[in-house]
Each structure stands twice: as structure tokens, then as C-alpha cells.
């Protein structure tokens, strides 16, 4: 499996939240934002916000802050969200359907062009405005113009075989929501999302919050 070490990954994970807030501010007609405002929204220290934003290459103005439109543009450029990202989604179950209904993807440049499933009750139906195709037709539909990424929302047992087929048509970037480690050739990159990971962090924080007063615990995000 190809492994790439990404520096500043906590900052990268915070970027979409900054962007969400900035887009809302733009709709409200606000022209400038300070690091303090963003810090209060994120419940983090202003210095963390300033370090995060510095990664994008933008410079703020003293006592004015950042131009909202400009900061939106710099964040999108940093995340490569300024261009259209095409995707296919495999697995139109509860999670896949929820992802299809996530409207903010349009702000991030992500366009899910096709959806595949093996369930006869779903094939041929439209879900969130997209027709569900028979997974047996995957290669024929994607091989001539493979999308940039594939979003995998199938069962753990089916994930590896599905990914093998996706790789065979030339897809090099996999967003994997199955709770399994995938084996892929060199040059193929997998981003694994473990839904229970967030729950694990929350329950550990619950446990730590019940410790005796005066105890100090640090949990890195």
C-alpha cells in the first residue's frame, strides 16, 4: 500500500470548518474576519488559527484581519478545491446515501458523477438526483473516463474486491469508509475514514473528564 506522510494534518482537518464559517460570513455580507473570531468559532487559541491560515500563504492586515473572499480563495487553493474533482460512489446504502445528500461537497469542488450498487432494489432508481447503476457495469462505464476519486461505502468483506476493480480502470485515489485496511499497488493512495474513531475520541474524553480535580491530561487532536 502506498503511504504518504502529510505534515500539519490537524491543521488540514480544520480547514473545511474555517471554510464553512467563511462561506456563511460571506452570505451575511461580512468583508473581513479576524483570527480571534475564527478562534472563538472553533474553540481554539488564536495563535493556532494564525498558524493554520499561514499555511495557505495569505497575509492578514493588522487591526483589519483577513479579507473573507480572499481567505476563501486561499484555503480552496491550498486544499486543491478550486478545481472540479470528479468522483464515483460505490455503495448506496445508508452511509452512501447520506454522503450523496451532503450539500457542502459542492463548495469543495467535489462532484459525484456516478453511483453503483449491487442491490436490485436500488439499481435504476434515483437517489439524491443520481441514478444508481448496476455494479457489474462499473468497468464499462468508468474505463474510458475514470473519475479522480472513488468513494467506497461497501461492506468490509466486499471492499477489497471493489477497490481492485476501481484500480483496474485507472482510479488512483480512494476514499475508503469500509473498516478494513486495503491492499493497493504503488501509486494508489487510500484515505481511510473510521467512523468509530470519532466516537472513540469522545468516549476517552468522557472518561478523562471524570478524573480527580487537579489531574492534567492532554489529548492531541
Structure description:
This protein has 221 residues and is of the alpha/beta class. The chain folds into two domains: 9-78, Arc Repressor Mutant, subunit A (Orthogonal Bundle); 85-196, Rossmann fold (3-Layer(aba) Sandwich), CATH 3.40.50.720. 39% of the residues lie in helices and 17% in strands. It contains eight helices and nine strands. Strands 5-6-4-3-7-8-9 form a seven-stranded mixed sheet. A two-stranded antiparallel ribbon has the order 1-2. β7 (149-152), α7 and β8 (173-176) form a beta-alpha-beta unit. α1 runs antiparallel to α4 (68-78) and α2 (35-42) crosses α3. The longest helix has 19 residues, at 9-27. The protein starts with 8 loop residues before the first helix and ends in a 12-residue tail after the last helix. The mean pLDDT is 91.
Fill in the keyword field for this structure.
single chain; 221 residues; alpha/beta; Arc Repressor Mutant, subunit A; Rossmann fold; 2 domains; two-stranded antiparallel ribbon; 8 helices
How many separate domains? 2
Q: Report how far apart the termini are.
A: 25 Å
Q: Which parts are unreliable, with pLDDT below 50 for 5 consecutive residues or more?
A: none
Task: Give the helix proportion (percent range).
Answer: 25-40%
Strand content: 15-25%
The computed structural class is alpha/beta
Overall 3D shape: globular
Strand order within the widest beta sheet: 5-6-4-3-7-8-9
Strand count, sense and closure of the main sheet? 7 strands, mixed
Number of helical stretches of at least 4 residues: 8
CATH topology of the largest domain: Rossmann fold
CATH superfamily of the largest domain: NAD(P)-binding Rossmann-like Domain
Amino acid at each position: 500500500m502506498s503511504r504518504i506522510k502529510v505534515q500539519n494534518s490537524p491543521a488540514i482537518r480544520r480547514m473545511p470548518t474555517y471554510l464553512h464559517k467563511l462561506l456563511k460570513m460571506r452570505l451575511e455580507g461580512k468583508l473581513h474576519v479576524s483570527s480571534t473570531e475564527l478562534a472563538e468559532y472553533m474553540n481554539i487559541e488564536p495563535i493556532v488559527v494564525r498558524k493554520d491560515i499561514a499555511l495557505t500563504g495569505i497575509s492578514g492586515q493588522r487591526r483589519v484581519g483577513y479579507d473573507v473572499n480572499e481567505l476563501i480563495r486561499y484555503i480552496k487553493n491550498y486544499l486543491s478545491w478550486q478545481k472540479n474533482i470528479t468522483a464515483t460512489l460505490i455503495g448506496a446504502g445508508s452511509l452512501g446515501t447520506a454522503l450523496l445528500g451532503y450539500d457542502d461537497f459542492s463548495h469543495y469542488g467535489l462532484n459525484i458523477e456516478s453511483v453503483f450498487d449491487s442491490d436490485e432494489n436500488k439499481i435504476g432508481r434515483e437517489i439524491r438526483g443520481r441514478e444508481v447503476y448496476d455494479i457489474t457495469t462499473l468497468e464499462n462505464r468508468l474505463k474510458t473516463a475514470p473519475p479522480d476519486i472513488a468513494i467506497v461505502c461497501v461492506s468490509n468483506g466486499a471492499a477489497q474486491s471493489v477497490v481492485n476493480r476501481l484500480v483496474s480502470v485507472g482510479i488512483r485515489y480512494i476514499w475508503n469508509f469500509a473498516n478494513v485496511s486495503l491492499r493497493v499497488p504503488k501509486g494508489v493512495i487510500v484515505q481511510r475514514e473510521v467512523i468509530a474513531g470519532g466516537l472513540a475520541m469522545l468516549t476517552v474524553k468522557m472518561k478523562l473528564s471524570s478524573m480527580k480535580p487537579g489531574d492534567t491530561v492532554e489529548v492531541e487532536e
